[in-house]
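Comment thread on ticket #2218

A.B. wrote:
> Attaching the input chain for the structure job we discussed in standup.
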Amino acid sequence: MALTYLELDFESKTTLELNKAPKGKAPWLEDNGIIADSELILGHLDSKTNGRLLGQLTAEEVAIGTAFTRLAEDHLYWLTVASRWLDDEWFEVVKRDFFSSLPWPLRTIVPLIGRRRMRQTYDLHGLGRHSLEEQQAFLDRDVEALVARLTDHNYIASDRMTIYDFTVASMLASSMDNQPETWVSARMNREQSLRDYIERVQEEVGVYGRK
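C.D. wrote:
> Ran it. Output below, let me know if you need it in another format.
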């Protein structure tokens, strides 16, 4: 979204070989060197374009945008991951879509290893130590905060689109556009204001999370 918004030429590549990633996770940007992590990439792009992403923001926009970005990336993200990887029924979708191309017996072994690591990471985060009912209550509070903000504002930080909308709208789309539905997407898709927000940002930037 940021690259398109800034009208920069780029080539996008997708890989599951995260062992080759600079920090063991995606995304990373190759631009006269390697910049890994979304926030660092956005900071690099802001510097590269003389402040076109962050330079015109008010202190209030930065404060609100940063808070909701943290909610989306560091809390809602992990609930979304758990609703896929740690739900027995939905894990079958993960195995099919991520690992079916592997030769046997790897396509049986690797998903189980990945799931075990995901469960360990979720536990270390802290969310994995709560019951499903408690996790669903946490999700309710995340959703209520987002809905309250977007009921009175067209965008997350103010009434104009900012850099923070790229992150929040993308994360919401990822959490909501799941087939079949997860317990996270089922809850979030009850909120039309969230769907309207995603579509508004995607249409303004011209980048869509689903085909």
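A.B. wrote:
> Thanks. Noting for the ticket: The chain has two domains: 1-56, 58-205.
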